[in-house]
Each structure stands twice: as C-alpha cells, then as structure tokens.
Amino acid sequence: GVQTCALPILTIGTGIGGCLIMDGKVFHGFSNSACEVGYMHMQDGDFQDLASTTALVEYVAAGHGDSVDQW
Predict the structure, then answer these.
(1) Which long-range contacts (CB under 8 A, 24 or more apart) does 48-55 make?
(2) What's the start-to-end Cα distance of the chain, in Å?
(3) Which residue stretches of the chain have pLDDT < 70?
C-alpha cells in the first residue's frame, strides 16, 4: 500500500502463510519467522490444520459422508 507504514499479507491455500511489510521492507522478526501464522497454535491444533483449504475440504467431505477425493 502506498503511504502505508505496515501492511499484513495473508495467503490461504493448502496451508496458511503470511508476511508483514513495514516501512516498505519485509519484516523478518526473530529467527526469520515473523507472520508464520499457519503455525500459530490454537486450542484444537495449528491454525493451518484448522482453516487451510485442505482442512476445509476435509471438513466438508466428512460432513457429506464423502471421501476427500470426490471434492
């Protein structure tokens, strides 16, 4: 974003990733793992295990009694 001090970016696919741009530069953080939101621990597991496209397809298939391959 133009004239933006901080810009968070979230990517959702087979996993979940992210990036933080601060003052026009990628913020790496301690140990180069800033914005690795997919690995953020939630009550029932890692965020990407609960909300990635792969996880959501598994939930829908199970809800319909189908195999994941059908989706």
Answers:
(1) 48/15, 48/16, 51/12, 51/16, 52/12, 52/13, 52/14, 52/15, 52/16, 53/12, 53/13, 53/14, 54/14, 54/15
(2) 36
(3) 1-2
**Nearest-angstrom CA–CA distance, 69 and 20:** 35
- What single letter denotes the amino acid at residue 32? N
Query: Is the overall model pTM greater than 0.85, yes or no?
Result: no
The encoded tokens of residue 42 equal: 């939630």
* Residues 7, 13, 15: CA angle, nearest 5 degrees: 90
